[in-house]
Design a protein that fits this description.
Blueprint lengths: L1 E10 L2 E11 L4 E5 L6 H8 L7 E6 L2 E2 L4 H6 L1 E4 L11 H11 L4 H14 L15 H13 L5 E5 L7 H14 L4 E6 L2 H7 L2 E6 L2 E7 H8 L3 E8 L2 H10 L3 E9 L4 E8 L6 H10 L4 E6 L2 H11 L5 H36 L1
Parallel strand pairs: 3-8, 3-9, 6-7, 7-8
Antiparallel strand pairs: 1-2, 1-4, 4-5, 9-10, 11-13, 11-14, 12-13
Helix pairs in contact: 3-4, 4-5
The structure holds adenosine-5'-diphosphate and magnesium ion (MG).
The site of magnesium ion (MG) has 5 residues, from α1.
C-alpha cells in the first residue's frame, strides 16, 4: 500500500529523517513510535506530500507522491499534529469547505459529510462553531476531515495529545474501528498509546528506524522471561501449588490477599512461553476462577527506552538483552525467597 525508500529530510545540516525504508500493508494499524523530535511529524508530512523530501521516495498504491500527487493524495486522509480547523466556522461549514477542496462531487458531498460526522460521532455538533468545541471534539472534527473522501489510508499525527483519559479511550476505539476498513498510521511518543491500538510498530529515534515488527513480536523478541499478574479466587496455598504445576512457570509470588477470598499473584514465566490458556484451564478445572489476568509489559517499555535512548548499536542491544535475562534470573531467585517468606508468614498467621 505504501512504500517508503531511502526517505531523508535535512534542515540545513540537521538530519531530521535519516534514510527511512519501510513498507505499509493494506488493512492494518501501524504506529510510529518515538520521543519528541524523533522525526515522526516530518516523516508523516513527507508521506502525505506536505513536505518534499531531501532524498528518497514515497509511493502510495503505485503512485509517487511527488510525481503523481493527485492520484497519491486521493488515497490518503491526514490529520496533522495541529488539526487544520477554522475556529469561526461551524462543523458543517468547515466540512463542506474541506469536501469542496478535496474535489468531492457536489451530489456526493452531503452524504460524505454525514457519513464522516456519523463515524466520529459529531452529528449533533454540526451547527456549533468550532471554537466553542472541547479539544476532544475539535480532534474529532479533524478526524472527520481526514475521513471525508473515504481514503484507503488514514494518517494521524499524535491524535490523542492533549486529550483527557476518557477522550483518549474514545479516540482509541474510533481508531480501532477505522482499522477494520482502512489502513491506519498513527504516531505517538507514548508506548502504551501505540501498543494499545497498533498491529505493527515502527520505532523511530533521531530520524532512524531502530525497530520494526508486530507489536506481539516486539514484546516476545525482547522480553526476557515475562510475568503475568493474576487475581484468583481460592485458597491461597492451593492456588499457588496448582499454578506451579503449569508448564512454563518459573515462580509464583502472592502480592496481595483480599477479604473477598481472592488473591493477587505474580507469576514468572519462562522465556517466550505463553501459559495463559493452560493456566486458565488449570484454574477453571480446579474451580478457582480467574478475576483478572495481565501480562506485565514493563519490558516493552524498557525496549523502547533503550532503542530510543543512548544504547542503539547492535552490541548494546545484545548487552541489554543479557541484562534483562540476568535481571530476570535475579528476580526469580528473589521470588522464590519471597515465596518462602510468604508461606512462613502464612503459617504464623494460622
Ligand atoms: P517528532 O514529530 O517526532 O516530534 P519532528 O518531525 O517534528 O519530530 O522533528 C524532527 C526534528 O526536525 C527535530 O529535531 C526538529 O527540531 C526538527 N525540525 C522539524 N521541523 C523543522 C523545521 N521546519 N526547521 C528546522 N528543523 C525542524
Ligand atoms: Mg510530531
Amino acid at each position: 500500500m505504501i512504500e517508503i525508500r531511502h526517505l531523508t529530510k535535512k534542515y540545513g545540516s540537521h538530519v531530521a529523517v535519516d534514510n527511512l525504508d519501510l513498507t505499509v500493508e493494506k488493512g492494518k494499524i501501524y504506529g510510529f513510535l518515538g520521543p519528541n523530535g524523533a522525526g515522526k511529524s516530518t516523516t508523516m508530512n513527507m508521506i502525505t506530500g506536505y513536505l518534499a523530501p531531501t532524498e528518497g521516495e514515497v509511493i502510495i498504491d503505485g503512485h509517487d507522491i511527488l510525481k503523481e500527487p493527485e492520484e497519491a493524495k486521493k488515497r490518503i486522509g491526514y490529520l496533522p499534529e495541529i488539526p487544520p480547523v477554522y475556529p469561526d466556522m461551524t462543523v458543517k461549514e468547515y466540512l463542506t469547505f474541506v469536501a469542496e477542496l478535496k474535489g468531492i462531487k457536489k451530489a456526493e458531498r452531503k452524504e460524505a459529510i454525514a457519513n464522516a460526522m456519523e463515524l466520529v460521532k459529531i452529528t449533533d455538533m454540526e451547527k456549533r462553531l468550532i471554537k466553542n468545541l472541547s479539544k476532544g471534539y475539535k480532534q474529532r472534527v479533524g478526524l472527520a476531515q481526514a475521513l471525508l473522501a473515504m481514503p484507503d489510508v488514514i494518517i494521524l499525527d499524535e491524535p490523542t495529545v492533549g486529550l483527557d483519559p476518557k477522550q483518549i479511550i474514545e479516540i482509541r476505539d474510533l481508531i480501532k474501528g477505522l482499522g477494520k476498513k482502512h489502513t491506519v498510521i498513527l504516531s505517538s511518543h507514548i508506548l502504551s498509546e501505540i501498543s494499545a491500538v497498533c498491529d505493527y510498530i515502527f520505532v523511530i529515534s533521531k530520524g532512524k528506524l531502530v525497530a520494526s515488527d508486530s507489536t506481539e513480536n516486539l514484546e516476545k523478541q525482547f522480553a526476557g522471561s515475562n510475568q503475568l499478574e493474576v487475581t484468583v479466587k481460592g485458597e491461597e496455598k492451593e492456588v499457588v501449588s496448582l499454578i506451579k504445576t503449569v508448564q512454563g512457570v518459573n515462580g509464583v509470588t502472592v502480592t496481595e490477599r483480599r477479604k473477598d477470598g481472592t488473591c493477587a499473584l505474580r507469576i514468572s514465566v519462562k522465556k517466550k512461553m505463553d501459559i495463559r490458556e493452560e493456566l486458565f484451564y488449570a484454574l477453571a478445572n480446579a474451580k478457582m476462577p480467574i478475576f483478572e489476568m495481565n501480562s506485565n509489559s514493563t519490558s516493552l517499555e524498557e525496549i523502547f527506552l533503550t532503542l530510543t535512548g543512548q544504547q542503539q548499536t547492535e552490541t548494546e542491544k545484545m548487552k541489554l538483552q543479557k541484562n534483562i535475562e540476568a535481571m530476570d534470573e535475579k528476580t526469580e531467585v528473589e521470588q522464590e525467597v519471597a515465596e518462602e517468606g510468604s508461606v512462613k508468614e502464612n503459617e504464623s498467621n494460622l
